[in-house]
Amino acid sequence: VSRAAELMSSHKLHTLPVVEGKKVVGMVSRIDIIRAMNR
């Protein structure tokens, strides 16, 4: 979670893909990261 937050912050991204192998299986947003960090 912290690595995703770093990537989003340093590259000014709002979402990141969730990848399994070479397949995108989902997306993670800034709000997803905030919620995960608050747990």
Keywords:
single chain; 39 residues; alpha+beta; two-stranded antiparallel ribbon; globular
Describe the structure.
The protein has 39 residues and is α+β, with helices and mostly antiparallel strands. The protein has one domain. The chain is 46% helix and 33% strand. It contains 2 helices and 2 strands. The protein has helices spanning 2-11, 30-37, and strands at 15-20, 23-29. Strands 1-2 form a two-stranded antiparallel ribbon.
Helix proportion: 40-55%
Low-confidence stretches: none
Shape: globular
Tally of individual helices: 2
Number of strands: 2
The major sheet is characterized as:
2 strands, antiparallel
Structural domain tally: 1
Note the beta-strand portion. Answer: 25-35%
Radius of gyration: 10 Å
Strand order within the widest sheet?
A: 1-2
The CA-CA distance between the termini, in Å, is: 11 Å
What order do the helices and strands come in, and which of them pair?
Blueprint: H1 2-11, E1 15-20, E2 23-29, H2 30-37
Antiparallel strand pairs: 1-2
Summarize the structure.
With 39 residues, the chain is α+β, with helices and mostly antiparallel strands.
